[in-house]
Amino acid sequence: MKNDTQLVGSLDMGTTKVSAMLGERHGDGIRIIGLGTTAAEGLKQGVVVDIEKASRSVTNAVIEAEKMAGVSIRRYNVGVAGEHILSMNSRGVVGIPDPDNEISRDDVGRSLRAAANFALPNDREILHTLPQGFIIDNQEGIREPFGMYGTRLEARAHVVTASRAALDNISKSLENCRLEIGDLVLEPLASSRAVVAEDEREIGVMVIDIGGGTTDVMIHHDVGVVASGVIGIGGNNITSDIAYGLRTAMKTAESIKIEHGCALSSLVSANDDIDVAGIGFREERKVGKQFLAGIIEPRVTELFCLINEQITKSHYKKSLGAGAVLTGGSSMLAGTRELAEQIFDLPVRIGSPLAVDGLAEVVSHPKYSTGVGLLLYDGILGGPRLGRESSGNWWRQSFNQLRKAIASFI
Q1: Closest C-alpha among 317, 322, 321, 339 to residue 330
Q2: Is domain 86-163 given the CATH code 3.90.120.10 in the classification?
Q3: Looking at the whole model, is its pTM more than 0.85?
Q4: pLDDT (tens digit, 9 = 90+) per residue, 363-403?
Q5: Taking the domains of the chain in order of start, what are their residue ranges?
């Protein structure tokens, strides 16, 4: 009989799939003991749009995971995504009441609360206050201020906010399943926990999690999170482009994308053909793989160009000493890594979950990065949820460009 106190659960509620995982923590790693995956219903671009259907998907995934593990738990860490996510960098300063005493955890908490102390609309809620570093009496570069001395403590933080309605709908979906939420975690934060090494965070790395409905981006530097954003383009957009361009059904387009798709036309031979089923009573026909790649490449190029424009304009690109890590199910599309390297002019690798055993061979795939990261999440990277604050977003200027880009391809 397993000790329930060692068990952890995660729910990755994506646009195309809902994955439930059960694991046992051991040191800094995790042993995966159960996995359940089901087609997502009631979810669109990272948010719940039908609570009843979403609850049914969660229930099916949890039942499958618990059957495999042979145990049941009620509390699950749940990933949060969607274009409602907004973030900003902020600072908070507090005085130390008695400079003869060491800086306490309460002092650090007060400085982080000060960093998140902004007027926030009633429809938004703080998801994370992520510490970036601290300054004590003008001494910068301090990561752990506990136990140090000073009269003035300043916290630098990356504050992530979300739609309160979106979070409430997630909570209601789990409540219907008689489950409890352990932590609500920004999905790229969870994915980063699973696929990024400490030394990569140290010198700077960008994590790009390409899911079915959205692409999540997070930039780490000097161990802290300096930027994050969500873009409403994902693998489903590529599938839609293929279905429209080849005049075939969405289900057929998805299979073609997985089996024959490539994001870089130069990697595909002009002599290779594939069979494409027609819609309705239309006959099957042959289409060149290079033609297929010509449909996929503009969409992926547009996504990476939007990201590259923002990181260049915001001066984050020069801090990416470790380059970029692509993860998520759609990152496995052939040619995606090579195209990313061309556009970003950075080293790029595909990220799969690290530090896992048990069902390691099953979950060591980019599509499970968020689920594994949610199991590993312990609040160290996430920081406390300290209150509410107003939000801007370094991606805000790209949203109008994004909508125009989507319109031009559909």
Answers
A1: 339
A2: no
A3: yes
A4: 889 999 999 999 988 764 444 444 333 333 333 333 343 33
A5: 86-163
